[in-house]
Specification:
InterPro entries: HATPase_C_sf (IPR036890), HATPase_dom (IPR003594), PPM-type-like_dom_sf (IPR036457), PPM-type_phosphatase-like_dom (IPR001932), Ptase_RsbX (IPR039248). This protein has 333 residues and is of the alpha+beta class. The chain is built from 8 helices and 15 strands. The strands form 3 sheets. It has a 5-stranded antiparallel β-sheet with strand order 1-2-3-5-4, sandwiched between helices. The protein has a 5-stranded antiparallel β-sheet with strand order 6-15-14-11-12, covered by helices on one side. A 5-stranded antiparallel β-sheet has the order 7-8-9-10-13. A hairpin with a 4-residue loop joins strand 9 and strand 10. It is globular.
Length: 333
């Protein structure tokens, strides 16, 4: 059985010059884990963290993780004043009193994938995906991405994505509590998902049995069938979801209960929502507010899904529990 759980993001707060080195060391370790060169990833981390110190008040944070087999994902996120002219900044044409104004240009030059989202007086998020093994270029825009950010070293949330039979299956799991024991529970439930990712009807019973020797978990499984233009899903506990489409925003209904705690599995229905072209699915755990601000954010949803996840995490995290947000688009733009 292939392990499907995505790596959690390591979060490095940047508020002091010493934090730039911490961000650089984090991406270096990820690159080495993938047996690749860390030079470009370290450059990206250094430039983005330095920008946070110079331009974001009171700083921000760098999020990074390995994306096997050969990429490192790096995000810089802040709640600063925003960038007045993104195009000029990315081209390196904006000399700044505190720097040369060339940082984003350097980051874009060494990135396989690069994206920026900024809002006046709300903050900026920058994405860089670096190929550390100089392998096959990834030209197509990503259809899905997400992030898990733990309050301790081991994140108790987890997520996974699998493609099968023309469908895309997405599972998001919240192990009870946080830390290592919660992560064990998330692992168990995601392994049950990996056994048969598109089996929505059998998932709850299978995941419940897998979680019996753990502290338990909440989980939502969605299977997107683009040909039939539907999402079939089942949800137990507090993993929330919304489908944002041309006709509006529709929420996923969840069932009460916890996987693994009782002798019998919780009762959970298999439900269906329509999945029109240009729809976006957003799933998140209770480390974020239950009411994500998705209305009126069409511009944000057009960006790379990882950047969307980072902005939603910034704007809605509770900062006291593990938090996960996953974004899936119907079409790559």
């Amino acid at each position: 059985m292939e392990p499907l759980r995505q790596f959690a993001h390591e979060r490095v707060a940047v508020a002091d010059p010493a934090d730039v080195g911490a961000a650089r060391r984090a991406v270096k370790q990820h690159a080495e884990r993938l047996h690749g060169s860390s030079a470009h990833a370290e450059l990206v981390a250094t430039e983005l963290a330095t920008n946070l110190l110079r331009h974001a008040v009171p700083g921000g944070w760098v999020l990074t993780r390995p994306v096997p087999p050969d990429r490192v994902e790096i995000l810089a996120v802040d709640r600063g004043p925003g960038i007045a002219d993104v195009a000029a900044a990315v081209e390196g044409h904006v000399p700044e009193p505190k720097g040369l104004g060339c940082g984003l240009a350097s980051v874009r030059r060494v990135s396989e994938r690069f994206d920026v989202h900024t809002e006046k007086d709300r903050g900026t998020a920058v994405l860089s995906l670096v190929d550390v093994r100089r392998g096959r270029p990834e030209h197509a825009p990503r259809r899905w991405a997400g992030m898990s950010v733990g309050v301790t070293e081991a994140c108790g949330d987890g997520w996974a994505v699998a493609e099968a039979g023309g469908c895309l299956a997405v599972a998001v799991v919240d192990g009870l509590g946080h830390g290592a024991s919660a992560s064990v529970a998330a692992d168990a439930v995601l392994k049950a998902f990996a056994l048969d990712p598109t089996d929505v009807e059998g998932y709850v019973a299978r995941a419940h049995e897998a979680a019996r020797m753990t502290r338990g978990a909440a989980a939502t499984l969605c299977v997107i069938d683009p040909d039939a233009e539907i999402v079939r899903y089942t949800a137990v506990g507090n993993v929330n979801g919304r489908v944002v489409g041309p006709s509006g925003i529709r929420g996923l209904a969840t069932s009460n209960g916890t996987l693994g705690l009782q002798a019998t599995p919780p009762k959970a229905q298999v439900r269906t929502l329509s999945w029109a072209p240009d729809s976006t699915l957003v799933l998140w755990t209770d480390g974020l507010s239950s009411r994500l601000e998705l209305e009126g954010r069409a511009d944000l949803l057009e960006h790379d899904p990882a950047l969307v996840a980072a902005v939603l995490h910034r704007d809605h995290t509770r900062d006291r529990d593990d938090a996960t947000v996953v974004v899936v688009r119907s079409t790559a733009t």
